[in-house]
Amino acid sequence: MSQRILIILLSLALGAVSGAFGYSLVAQKRRAVELSIARAEGRAEAEKAVADEMAALKPVVFAKAANSETKAGGVQFGYEYIKPRSPELEPFYKMAHDGDMLRKLPEVHAIDGMLMLPRPINYVTAQCNEVNAFYSPERNEVVMCYETMKTLLDRGTELAKENGGGDAYAQRYLDANVRFILLHETGHALISLLEIPITGREEDAVDQLATTLMQRFAGMDESTGVVTENLRMASNWFLVRSTGQYSLDAYADQHALGEQRYFNLQCLLYGSDPARYLSIVTDGDLPEARAKGCPEEARRISRSWLRLLLPYVAPKYQMTEEKANRLFEQRERERDRNTGVQYVR
């Protein structure tokens, strides 16, 4: 048997067991195999390139992982609030900085330190000179622009005037959309860092992940009704800049049309519990023809994302898919019980 065939077989064997380990360790094993192949074939330039890439990878120590009491945790995120130059954006900087907004997002907090990543995701608020939020692969940053926060608050204020919700509603609209948008961008970061296979449109996939995380990892003081309202507010934002009249560029864009994103989110929400969310269909927010397939669609998407991420969960938090689903269900029951208790002041 040739040396190359032996190396390829070794690669397959490593791939078979890699699911139980973090991304950095898997990446190192993969590069080690590539290095061996390059050496065996006498390709000096390829050998040097792979060796340099291996040196750049941050090693993950698993020496204590065998001890159940000292299993390794995942990579911690970074957080930064950059002071804006524009005085108009100063209130949004203070809102984010003084309240430590990024660190207190329930869904981000829940996954902070849970995953084995090649490097940390850094969450940043900053002035961007445009309404935007994005993931920068070069800096590995998820950025929320102050201009976006301002626009969201303005939109929430408009809706509050229409429905009599007041300032509290406007703030809730801002908070709900900031959460969804940052989770959407987190999805892009995870796909990039973990090389997660996505066969459809990536923008749709990260919308699905954001919805799933908001349903699974909402705050323990947030009832199912609050979670639902947050997602409805997020779906409203999809429609803000929709005109119903689109150019060829809009149809060719990597994002689905705002109306499509709106109905996709309604489908996931309704499909997660058709009995509870029947009003989404009866009120006309989701056509019956689409609603019929939503329960299976919601189950498939939730299951798919869980299976994609489980191999990268740190040893400290590793569990089976079945156990993860039980914990999610228990968490939802506890949230509803906590928020449903009445008391006398």
What is the element layout, followed by pairings?
Elements: H1 3-17, H2 23-40, H3 44-56, E1 78-81, H4 90-98, H5 106-111, E2 122-126, E3 133-136, E4 141-145, H6 146-163, H7 166-194, H8 202-216, H9 224-240, H10 248-252, H11 258-272, H12 279-282, H13 288-291, H14 294-309, H15 321-340
Parallel strand pairs: 1-2, 2-4
Antiparallel strand pairs: 3-4
Tell me about this structure:
The chain has 345 residues and is mainly alpha-helical. It folds into 2 domains: 3-60, no CATH class; 78-336. Helix content is 59%, strand content 5%. The protein has helices at residues 3-17, 23-40, 44-56, 90-98, 106-111, 146-163, 166-194, 202-216, 224-240, 248-252, 258-272, 279-282, 288-291, 294-309, 321-340, and strands spanning 78-81, 122-126, 133-136, 141-145. The protein has a 4-stranded mixed sheet. A hairpin with a 4-residue loop joins strand 3 and strand 4 (141-145). The termini are far apart.
